[in-house]
């Protein structure tokens, strides 16, 4: 099945056309500066050449039209008719408590995504615009599926997702831990089960999605059991620019002393904290490594804090699940940064966790990096959220056709 995967942001739109039978990316690209002028960067599999096209994109509909045009282009494109696109899979950030799986998009589903806007005011509106734009350009006969970042985590037990604030705030505002990166955690857990040659239902896994945004998930017998991001992606680990969890009293203290509003403090916690805030150098782990090699103590401190937080969460999830069969590292940092993997797993031999330093030298490659005799396997698995979205889309469209 040929599935167009769409990830729509406020002024950008990422796309991939995947052939699910061959797990093959036929073409991919990015529309930027939507509503300003419009730039499209496109790569098709006929040639590896990257095209940059300046074309007016006043709206997301115009961006989708530009995507379809380039996919159909005799030279740069990969299909000869729009009817070759069997379905569209849309990434949607927040599905609240409505969605515990991906689903075929209907008017009722759109309404529920709208109802989740207060929970994700920056993300759900552009996701909705992307859905509407595709419907407008592609017509009503192409099935569309919404794949939610939060859905995978809906299996968490209540004691794991509640915050200990008055219960009425949960009933009134649905304040609770939702968790994000669900598509990635789900994808790598399935890959891990395949690598281990065991059914997912028999496994206790801890998946570490460590990128610019980072979260960890305890996956107990195939189901999300706990996760580090919370009501918003600000909770949990310190990240590129996010603070992660902290004593909430700091917010009022900073607001008063720095003469800031609560919203301004939250912006600082989202955009100026984490690795950037501590190091004063960068949010990018590669820049931190360069600074560390030059003897920068604050860059070292930032990375030490990150590694410690990952270790603490892994430890707590092992305690919650009563053991672990495999720990999985994924995303930009998890796939590439060997020092993070090494420091996180150091001194955990007593739990059966021991990395092989030779195997740990590889990066960006799916492999088992644990020492042969280790009881717990440590795996590096490159994530592929677009493929997971395409596979979910295919599954639901086929179910609908039955
Ligand atoms: P996101 O999808 O959250 O934007 P990614 O998963 O692409 O993030 O991860 C981006 C981060 O991965 C970069 O900020 C960088 O710090 C890190 N990264 C990428 N390549 C490497 C590498 N070779 N070594 C260390 N860190 C890397």
Compact summary:
Helices cover 38% and strands 19% of the residues. By secondary structure, the chain is α/β, with parallel strands linked by helices.
Strand ordering within the main sheet: 5-4-3-2-1-6-8-7
Can you count the beta strands? 14
The general outline is globular
Quickly count the helices. 14
Approximate strand percentage = 15-25%
- Helix content percent band: 25-40%
SS-derived structural category = alpha/beta
Give the helices and strands as they follow along the chain.
EEEEEHEEHHEHHHEEEHHHHHEHHEEH
Q: Averaging pLDDT over every residue, what do you get? A: 96
Distance between the amino and carboxyl termini: 16 Å
Topology, please?
Elements: E1 2-8, E2 13-19, E3 24-32, E4 39-44, E5 50-54, H1 60-72, E6 87-92, E7 103-104, H2 107-115, H3 124-138, E8 144-148, H4 158-161, H5 168-173, H6 182-196, E9 204-210, E10 214-220, E11 223-227, H7 249-258, H8 262-271, H9 274-279, H10 285-293, H11 297-321, E12 326-330, H12 331-336, H13 338-345, E13 367-368, E14 377-380, H14 385-401
Parallel strand pairs: 1-6, 6-8, 9-12, 12-14
Antiparallel strand pairs: 1-2, 2-3, 3-4, 4-5, 7-8, 9-10, 10-11, 13-14
Helix pairs in contact: 1-3, 7-8, 10-11, 11-13
The structure holds adenosine-5'-diphosphate.
Adenosine-5'-diphosphate binds next to helix 10 and helix 12.
Description of the structure:
The model has no long low-confidence stretch (mean pLDDT 96). Helices cover 38% and strands 19% of the residues. It has helices at 60-72, 107-115, 124-138, 158-161, 168-173, 182-196, 249-258, 262-271, 274-279, 285-293, 297-321, 331-336, 338-345, 385-401, and strands at 2-8, 13-19, 24-32, 39-44, 50-54, 87-92, 103-104, 144-148, 204-210, 214-220, 223-227, 326-330, 367-368, 377-380. The strands form 2 sheets. Strands 5-4-3-2-1-6-8-7 form an 8-stranded mixed β-sheet. It has a 6-stranded mixed β-sheet with strand order 11-10-9-12-14-13, sandwiched between helices. It has 402 residues and is α/β, with parallel strands linked by helices. Bound molecules: adenosine-5'-diphosphate. The site of adenosine-5'-diphosphate has 12 residues, from helix 10 and helix 12.
